[in-house]
Amino acid sequence: MADNKVLIVEDDTNLLETLKYNLRKEGYDVVTASDGEQAIEVARREKPDLLILDIMLPRISGFEVCRILRKEMTVPILMLTAKADETDKIVGLEIGADDYMTKPFSMRELIARVRAMLRRSKIAEAPPASEQALLKIGNLEVDIARHRASLSGEALELSPKEFDLLAFLAKNKGLVFNREQLLEKVWGYDYAGNSRTVDVHVRWLRQKIEVDPGRPRLLVTVRGTGYKLEG
């Protein structure tokens, strides 16, 4: 666990110090930033294993920080929002966040989320030796062993959760899964989000793997049932 570096971006000094104290107590290497510009600088320099990112930040919003960093790195991102409605949460997921929590939150739950996100990230990086290493669906290639995907030879920039979803569907091509099944298989039992999370990630994947995302031919919707990757 000592190798796991967590970047906390929060402008509330008290919350920042509380998060830092509790995560360090759990054995994580913690670095911090208190505004959006500093967050980008620290992330680029420190290459964290996970990013805890508040939405409301000085200088550059958490949304913009997420959008910028998602284009550069695949670090798992847990966003924090002070709003109870789902608008911020959905926007965050749409620009590449992997999970979200609403303030005020339980420190125990946050640590559990951090632990789960890092665990899934490590599992994705080191799949079982028996697992098929390279999956091909038409012009789409999913390299399980290297945690990479490409389309017609061009590398795809995917968030960790986008890759997990694509890899799961690729390993089960032709099979239909509903939203609840995908939440269980891809996000895990400990994920506290809802089924809209799946729709958001499907939409983002289609933007990256479909010629016409509005008329998908690879990642298709089976009306009234769920999604599948055409074999």
What labels would you give this structure?
single chain, 231 residues, alpha/beta, Rossmann fold, Arc Repressor Mutant, subunit A, 2 domains, five-stranded parallel sheet, four-stranded antiparallel sheet, 11 strands, 42% helix
Q: How many discrete structural domains?
A: 2
Q: Structural class, please?
A: alpha/beta
Distance between the termini: 39 Å
CATH superfamily of the largest domain: Response regulator
Note down, in words, how this protein is organized.
- This protein is α/β, with parallel strands linked by helices.
- It folds into 2 domains: 5-125, Response regulator (Rossmann fold, 3-Layer(aba) Sandwich); 134-229, Orthogonal Bundle (Arc Repressor Mutant, subunit A).
- The chain is 42% helix and 20% strand.
- The chain is built from 8 helices and 11 strands.
- The protein has helices spanning 13-25, 36-46, 62-72, 87-94, 107-125, 160-171, 179-187, 196-209, and strands spanning 5-9, 29-33, 50-54, 77-81, 99-102, 134-137, 140-143, 148-151, 154-155, 219-222, 226-229.
- The strands form 3 sheets. A 5-stranded parallel beta sheet has the order 2-1-3-4-5, sandwiched between helices. A 4-stranded antiparallel beta sheet has the order 6-7-8-9, covered by helices on one side.
- The longest helix is centred in the middle third of the chain and has 19 residues, at 107-125.
- The radius of gyration is 18 Å and the shape is globular.
- The mean pLDDT is 86.
